[in-house]
Write a structure and sequence with these properties.
Elements (H helix, E strand, L loop, with lengths): L3 E7 L4 E5 L2 E15 L5 E13 L14 E14 L5 E14 L12 E4 L13 E2 L20
Parallel strand pairs: 4-6, 7-8
Antiparallel strand pairs: 1-3, 1-5, 2-3, 3-4, 5-6, 6-7
Length: about 150
C-alpha cells in the first residue's frame, strides 16, 4: 500500500455529488513548500492534490470551504491526460481515507480539531475532539452528543 499525507489549504469550496448511489466529496488541497535553491534563492513550490472522499457522512462538506486548513490521509493516484495545448500532463489525485479539519475557521477563529475517518483502520486520531464516521458516537469519552451533532 502507498500512503499519502497532506497538510494544506483548500483552494475552493468542496463539491458534493452522488455517483451510483454513493456520496463523494471532491476538493482540492494546496501544499506550499519554501526552500533555497543552489544559488541561495528562496523558492516557493505549490503542489495541488485533487481529493475524493467517499463517505456516507457528508455533514463535513459544510466545513470544507476555500482557505480551510486540512490534513488528508489517503492513497495517491496519478491521472495522465492531454492538456488544452496538446501537451501531456498529469495530476495528483488522492482517495481520502482520513480527513481532519485543522486550525481555525476560514475567518481565523480557532476551534477544535476534528477527525473524520472512513475506514476502521484509520480511526486512530490526534489530539482534540475526534469523530469517527463509522460509529454513531463521538470518540471522546467526556461527551455524549448525538451522531448528527458535529463536535465543533
Amino acid at each position: 500500500m502507498i500512503k499519502l499525507q497532506i497538510i494544506g489549504n483548500l483552494g475552493a469550496d468542496c463539491i458534493q455529488k452522488e455517483i451510483n448511489g454513493k456520496n463523494v466529496i471532491n476538493f482540492n488541497v494546496a501544499h506550499t513548500e519554501k526552500f533555497k535553491d543552489a544559488q541561495g534563492n528562496v523558492v516557493e513550490k505549490t503542489i495541488w492534490a485533487n481529493c475524493a472522499y467517499w463517505t456516507d457522512r457528508t455533514a463535513v462538506a459544510q466545513y470544507l470551504k476555500k482557505g480551510k486548513q486540512v490534513f488528508v490521509d489517503g492513497s495517491p493516484e496519478v491521472e495522465v491526460y492531454t492538456n488544452k495545448d496538446g501537451q501531456p500532463a498529469a495530476t495528483l489525485r488522492v482517495r481520502v481515507r482520513d480527513l481532519q479539519l485543522l486550525g481555525g475557521n476560514v475567518d481565523g477563529n480557532t476551534g477544535n480539531q476534528s477527525s473524520y475517518a472512513s475506514a476502521p483502520a484509520s480511526s486512530s486520531s490526534s489530539s482534540g475532539s475526534n469523530y469517527n464516521t463509522n460509529s454513531n458516537k463521538p470518540v471522546t469519552a467526556d461527551t455524549e452528543e448525538p451522531a448528527d451533532d458535529l463536535p465543533f
